[in-house]
Amino acid sequence: MSKFAFSLLATDPKSMARAGLWETPHGTIETPAFMPVGTAGTVKGLTPDQLAATGAKKILANTYHLALRPGPEVVADLGGLHRFFDWSGPILTDSGGFQIFSLAKLSRMTEEGVTFRSHLDGSALNLTPEKAMSIQEFLGADVIMCLDECPPADAPEEHILRAVDRTTRWAARCREAHQRSDQALFGIVQGGTIESLRIRSAEALLPFDFPGYAVGGLSVGEPPPEMYRTLEFTTPVLPVQKPRYLMGVGRPIDLIEGVLRGIDLFDCVMPTRNGRNGMAFTSTGPVRLKNARHLRDTSPLDAECPCQACQRFSRGYLRHLFMCGEMLGPILLTLHNLTFYQRLMKGLREAILEGRGIEFRASQLARWGESG
Fold first, then answer.
1. Residue 264 annotated as binding?
2. Annotated catalytic, 267?
3. Is 314 marked as binding a ligand?
4. Which of 254, 264, 267, 302 is the catalytic position?
5. What is the pLDDT of residues 237-277, one digit of tens each?
6. Which domain of life is it from (predicted)?
7. What is the pTM of this model?
């Protein structure tokens, strides 16, 4: 039996939403699920116990950043990622493909692979499909990603076509190079927002029979409605009985809209990054704690939230921490935002199991004032 069995428990009658169970060597994930981002082997500001207290079951780490420091061999010598930062649940590693987009000024790409000039010290990091597999095997994550080319949203169609076909060729090389049976290798669908290219990419990857498929190259500058439209014609091409992962997304409303279009897994830096900068997601919409209106506010950040930030402290105190530059402020808001995201996904999953996914979206938008 596969170490990565995926089973569907329910589908929403009015949308493409699914609720499922995904078995991995380090635990079973209830889907749909959101993965906090621990780029360098840590979700900034939180201990593993605090992270688990948010409800998180699976996290993401990054191949490019861990390859630069401390290096994949060092991580392997220290017991692999799970032992390295003491996380007992599943871990996914990105391949470094997104950095081809985000660090375009520091990289040079050829058919063989990509060479990065380190953002740390300028040293060269050569990343080929084979090298991406080797690094991720050293790191030891449960789920690893093929190296792909992620073009910007405003790229010309011919550029996106080249990226689609290169992503397919690189996926073949990744499939050939990958050795570890305790890791699930996901293929990544590219194609911008162009229907014919998304279908071309997905159909080219299907013969490799990956254990799961990711939708990459979204949330890179296109308007949200274009992202949603793209999912509507992409997810139906992907296998029903395998998990679907939308990479790097996103806002709370994006999670809901993605799930309603058949997505099972998400990751994004938004809850942690926004938390470190004083912005909280709450049951009634976003709260910007640095605003002066919270100076004497004795109310909790979110009366419905069970996290420490909401149960023990006032908005006025949380604002004070940020205005004083105290590290506790970003820690507490990170804790809160991740708890909010996990509670949102739990509520969405329950709604799907009860056949009311569309109603869940309407209810949330009404509470958030459509600003989710």
1. no
2. yes
3. no
4. 267
5. 999 999 999 999 999 999 999 999 999 999 999 999 999 99
6. Bacteria
7. 0.96
